[in-house]
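**Backbone description:**
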Amino acid sequence: MIVRTASKGFIHPTPSEITSQSAYQSRREWMQRLALGAGGATLAAWAGRDALAQAATARPGKLAALSGARSSVPGASTPEALTRYEHASTYNNFYEFGTDKAAPAVNAKSLPTRPWTVAVEGLVSKPRSFDIDALLKLSAMEERIYRLRCVEGWSMVIPWVGFSLEALIKQVQPLGSAKYVEFVTLADPKVMPGLRSNVLDWPYVEGLRLDEAMHPLTLLAFGMYGEILPNQNGAPLRLVVPWKYGFKSGKSLVKIRFTDKEPRTAWNVAAPQEYGFYSNVNPGVAHPRWSQATERRIGEEGGLLAKRRKTLMFNGYEPQVGQLYAGMDLSKFF
């Protein structure tokens, strides 16, 4: 059921980007020299944090600004090099706009993101519909630099802007009988040409256990790279669950429903032997048609021939989320 497409290759920077990156590189090297000459590890660590902040807050200048404070949530900021915005915004899986990696960036331009409401319903004390602008004001925005691991064996590092989904969940007060949360993506055939295909049953549905949804790392994202989300990345709001394969993070959400039963999710319905409900990143559990032990980082020089890196358990977030699955057979509940 997965449509395989080749990488679009290395995207070369524009002259302005080269200038910006050169200036940043000079600043980073100056900070490192200062650290080494003025007292060692403490200043070096400070210089590293400064460099990370500089990289994380650089805006591509494509869309409206949306900034967030650096998050204090444990695990919310990886020090790895960011994937270039050009890659993250043009190499996408968003089948509602086409199955080719480049199709969403082309076809999603017509997606209207205002007005936009999200219905939150089901087993909650206070069901309600949220306007997107009300959601933007619901909690303080944070920047989270997360690894993204696709089930297809590639990965990125993206600076998202949003807040923990937990903030929204607390607004509606789930009942004691609520065990799961279902997330539904927009399905509008007028602007989503991919809906004409039978790749999946539409609308696209994903789901989490309630404790997964309440985990501080589970992000309701409204932006990336210091700007609002591009349409092809799930505007105007999406889920980001960094320890799970990317398809678990539903895009362009229009409904969130609390239930006592495990939701029937899109890929699990399409191919249950290949895509389990949990879909946690697990290098020890292979996909039936390929290994999950390694991954290709998108944008690294060499393209398809670049050296692959080892995939980390729970995508590197095991210290933060491993306790959620204590005692579970992860080869059975994959």
About this structure: The CA atoms of residues 121 and 127 lie 5 Å apart. Confidence is low (pLDDT under 50) at residues 1-57. The chain is about 20% helix and 20% strand. The first helix runs from residue 15 to 37.
